[in-house]
Amino acid sequence: MGGLGDPAICIDSDIAAILATQGVEFLLSGEGKVPLSSCDGKTICLFFSANWCRPCRTFCPQLVQLYNTLNTKGKNLEIIFVSFDHDENGFKEHFKPMPWLAVPFATNLHKRLSGMYHVDRIPSLISLSLDGLSVGEDLIGLIEDYGDEAFPFTKQRKEELKAADDAKCQGGKLEDLLAHKGRNYVISMDAKKLQIAVSELVDRTIGLYFGGHWCPPSRSFTKQLIEAYNDLKTSTSTEQFFEIVFVSTDRDCKEFDLNLSSMPWLAIPYEDRTRQDLCRIFNVKGIPALVIVGPDGKTITTNGKSMIALYGAKAYPFTESRIASLEGALRKEGEALPPQVKDIKHEHILKLDMAKAYVCDSCRKQGKFCAFSCDVCDYDLHPSCVEPTS
Ligand SMILES: [Zn+2]
Ligand SMILES: [Zn+2]
């Protein structure tokens, strides 16, 4: 009734107070004990992690890098490690490389804190607002996706980053996609790794090829793509208007270099984040994948892989109308074919099938619409691969 609020229900709720109510008397740094008040005035994140957990150990170095980068930039970030280790030794081992603070190891404290902050898995990183209470969702994914760009880890920041991704995906400047923090070139895929300015690629149709040497389907698609690429690069009508940029998902630099030796096009350098950024922006969930960006910077298709597999260089410029006209021509071709044939390579009669996606059992390439297929066994031929018996 007084309208000023009841002091009895005002909770002093910054993180130091919350920890104190849980029986925590001090925090630890690499040097030793520090007072709870060392958190005052900082952006605080709680890091729930354990040394026995492999994903935790993998994520840790990434978080150390982020912490150091942000604090070098004066962002005043503090992280408090809450240990899920089974014993004090595990805790010590895990805390050793961490440049931030930790709550002292104690049984059950991690359970109470993780219950309080709704943590149901580790690693988990929870950002606290100034009142120490209102928490958002787990930040691990956000940090893996965006690194230190994710700071200050708010919902608003996440929405901004997502909107920037969407804008890049829908199209705009090629530089925004391919360049990164002062690097404005891509490299040639040979031992010299020549630098080619991104500005030289503007106004071309660009194929972003996502692949990795460790993945067999990717290796075999590379061969098909090289064939199409060479066709396009030796034709005067397309040579100047098409380019491929490799976005490596190789597991390390060595594999990347191995890939270099087999590809005739350009690549994003292995070292910076652009490779991960492009996978995220175009929502690439599996490799091989081929995203086609048009001369105006807009995405033409994320399905370039099946276009190349079916039509090779003829798919260029990968537009809907181009694909429709190729499909139309194939249908027409099919209408002129006999209803069945006998091929010298196969013992049974092969029947014309007009609605089929298949891999040809002779040339091993994909086909669509017209196939000569066996009813008895799983055998398909391109019409052009049939050798009729006399
Ligand atoms: Zn064939
Ligand atoms: Zn058969």
Automatic annotation (TrEMBL):
Keyword NAD (UniProt): yes
Keywords associated with the record: NAD, Oxidoreductase, Repeat
Catalytic activity field: [protein]-dithiol + NAD(+) = [protein]-disulfide + NADH + H(+); [protein]-dithiol + NADP(+) = [protein]-disulfide + NADPH + H(+)
GO molecular function, one term: thioredoxin-disulfide reductase (NADPH) activity
Keyword Repeat carried by entry: yes
InterPro entries: C1-like_sf, DC1, Nucleoredoxin-like, Thioredoxin-like_fold, Thioredoxin-like_sf, Thioredoxin_domain, TryX_NRX_thioredoxin_dom
SUPFAM superfamilies the UniProt entry points to: Cysteine-rich domain, Thioredoxin-like
Broadest EC class assigned to this enzyme: oxidoreductase
Occurrences of domain Thioredoxin (ranges): 13-170
EC number of the protein: 1.8.1.8
Pfam families per the UniProt record, alphabetical: C1_2, Thioredoxin_8
Family of this protein: Belongs to the nucleoredoxin family.
Name recorded for this polypeptide: protein-disulfide reductase
Organism: Tripterygium wilfordii (Thunder God vine)
